[in-house]
Design goal:
Chain lengths: 114, 208
């Protein structure tokens, strides 16, 4: 398949979203910096948003009657706003952790471990 | 069957490569400042993908709220915590191995799921679909947020018509949620003034 001469469909958007999602998951699991974990969450949210927009776009689907339409874009807007809220709270928690423990390493946040 | 280059596909390819490459760079770079930079590139390229899908308002908000707001917040967090031992934090190779294994299996599942539906490949597009004019989506999106769905006015099924009632309640909920969260975050992150400081601030623990 030659991508340059064939129209782009939702499938291609899904593949990009899958790569972003997986990169975010690896970031969340492997990074030791708490802010690196936060960046992984942002990547995951963006991969999901990309899928919503792709399914809602009428330029990508042949059968535009069954596409999400505006609902996909509305969900994407909600995800963007929720990501902003999540980043604000998580950053506040990370800064508090930094102030009290003088480190940002998530491996040191083990006081609640059983 | 046209042999000519589809410019839409070409720009999609550019943006997709930028998004995926920058996301990989976020994963692979150990320096947290470079991670933040690559994240900016990746999210900007995703905004370009939104524009290519015809979602102009979502792409604009991605640039303004996400890249311009959320990531600036993250960069501030990076700058406030960027003391020397925390800028370059390496992960143990065994943990990298486990993470790569989980990521590869997840990617295999998602990749196969995306390829498995033939209608998603974009080949069934009619010429009218491909030549559809881009319409601004800001006005219908705004009207949908205040409860009027102008894009689906003639829904035949009465049960589905109830679902077309717009997004007024989620809009209100998310507005109140955002206010609560931002006040809470400001309260959490405020500088705590201690009346006396008997001991000097403790030295940072170096990561093993």
């Amino acid at each position: 398949m030659n991508l340059l001469t064939q129209p782009v469909g939702p499938m291609h958007y899904l593949l990009v979203g899958a790569v972003l999602f997986v990169c975010g998951v690896i970031c969340m699991t492997a990074k030791r910096n708490a802010l690196g974990v936060l960046m992984g969450i942002e990547l995951v949210l963006n991969g999901a948003t990309l899928n919503f927009v792709a399914f809602g776009s009428r330029f990508l689907r042949g059968d535009s009657a069954s596409s999400l339409g505006l609902d996909g874009q509305l969900m994407a807007l909600f995800v963007i706003v929720l990501a902003a809220a999540e980043a604000a709270v998580a950053l506040a928690i990370a800064l508090n952790f930094y102030h009290t423990h003088a480190t940002i390493d998530v491996d040191d946040a083990s006081e609640l471990k059983g | 069957m046209s042999v000519a280059i589809q410019w839409h596909s070409l720009f999609f390819l550019l943006m997709a490569l930028a998004a995926c490459g920058a996301a990989l760079a976020v994963v692979l770079s150990a320096n947290v400042v470079r991670m933040a930079f690559w994240l900016v590139v990746s999210l900007g390229a995703v905004a370009g993908l939104f524009f290519l899908a015809g979602a102009d308002l979502v792409g604009t908000l991605q640039l303004m709220v996400y890249v311009g707001g959320t990531l600036v917040l993250l960069v501030f967090g990076v700058m406030l915590t960027a003391r020397q031992p925390f800028v370059d934090m390496r992960t143990a190779p065994t943990q990298w191995l486990v993470a790569a294994l989980v990521g590869a299996s997840l990617l295999a599942v998602l990749w196969q799921a995306a390829l498995s539906v033939d209608r998603w490949a974009g080949r069934g597009q009619t010429l009218a679909d491909r030549q559809a004019q881009a319409e601004p989506t800001a006005a219908p999106l705004g009207l949908a947020l205040v409860g009027v769905r102008v894009d689906k006015p003639d829904q035949a099924d009465p049960r589905l018509r109830d679902g077309m009632a717009g997004y007024l309640l989620p809009f209100e909920v998310i507005s109140v949620h955002l206010v609560v969260v931002l006040i809470g975050a400001a309260h959490l992150a405020r500088a705590k003034r201690r009346p006396t400081s008997p001991e000097p601030p403790q030295t940072p623990r170096t990561p093993e």
